[in-house]
C-alpha cells in the first residue's frame, strides 16, 4: 500500500476494547502489522488493533500530522461521523484550520480510501 513517497495516509483503527486509534503512515499494511506486533505506537501495545475503519490519502506528511492531531482532539461522536461519512473529515478539518486563522486551506487534498480497498486490506491482514 506504499504508493509513493508523496502519498500519506491518516487512518483510524478499531481496537479490541472498542476504542479507536488514529495515526499516519505512507504504508498502511506495514504500519498495521507493526501495531499488531506491538512495535507500533505505545497505545496499540495495550489496545490490540483489530482492523482499519477508515483511511484518507493526503499529499504531505505535514498535512497528515495536522489532520491526525485534529482527529485526536475531537470526541468519539465526531470520529463516528467521519467513519460514517468519510467526506466530512475534510469539511470539518478546513473549518477547524480556518477558525485558527490559517489561510492556506484551499490546496488541501483529503481523499477517502474506498471501503472496498480497506476491506481487502483488512482481509489480507487478518489471514
Automatic annotation (TrEMBL):
It comes from the Bacteria. Residues 6-81 form the GIY-YIG domain. PROSITE patterns: GIY_YIG. Pfam families: GIY-YIG. InterPro entries: GIY-YIG_endonuc, GIY-YIG_endonuc_sf, UPF0213_domain. SUPFAM superfamilies: GIY-YIG endonuclease. Gene3D superfamilies: GIY-YIG endonuclease. PANTHER family: UPF0213 PROTEIN YHBQ (PTHR34477:SF1). Belongs to the UPF0213 family. This is GIY-YIG nuclease family protein. The lineage of its organism: Bacteria, Pseudomonadati, Spirochaetota, Spirochaetia, Brachyspirales.
Amino acid at each position: 500500500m506504499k504508493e509513493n513517497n508523496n502519498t500519506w495516509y491518516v487512518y483510524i483503527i478499531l481496537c479490541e476494547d472498542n476504542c479507536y486509534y488514529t495515526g499516519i503512515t505512507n504504508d498502511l499494511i506495514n504500519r498495521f502489522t507493526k501495531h499488531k506486533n506491538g512495535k507500533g505506537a505505545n497505545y496499540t501495545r495495550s489496545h490490540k488493533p483489530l482492523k482499519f475503519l477508515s483511511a484518507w490519502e493526503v499529499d504531505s506528511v505535514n498535512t497528515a500530522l495536522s489532520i491526525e492531531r485534529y482527529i485526536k482532539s475531537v470526541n468519539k461522536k465526531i470520529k463516528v461521523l467521519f467513519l460514517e461519512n468519510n467526506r466530512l473529515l475534510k469539511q470539518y478539518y478546513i473549518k477547524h484550520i480556518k477558525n485558527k486563522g490559517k489561510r492556506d486551506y484551499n490546496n488541501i487534498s483529503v481523499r477517502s480510501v474506498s471501503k472496498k480497498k480497506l476491506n481487502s486490506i483488512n482481509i489480507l491482514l487478518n489471514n
